[in-house]
Specification:
The structure is a single chain. This protein is an all-alpha fold and 41 residues long. It contains two helices and no strands. Helices cover 90% and strands 0% of the residues. It is rod-shaped.
């Protein structure tokens, strides 16, 4: 039983690492937004 809890704890930090990765993709979308704005004027 104790071993099962340790395995679950290790999976939690793995998910935390994937969160910052998604944050990095957010600024990328911001860069593409100003690009279409330049075509409007």
């Amino acid at each position: 039983m104790g071993d099962s809890e340790i395995g679950k704890l290790e999976e939690l930090p793995i998910t935390n690492y994937q969160l910052p990765i998604t944050n990095s993709q957010l600024p990328i979308t911001n860069y593409q937004l100003p690009i279409p704005n330049s075509q409007l004027p």
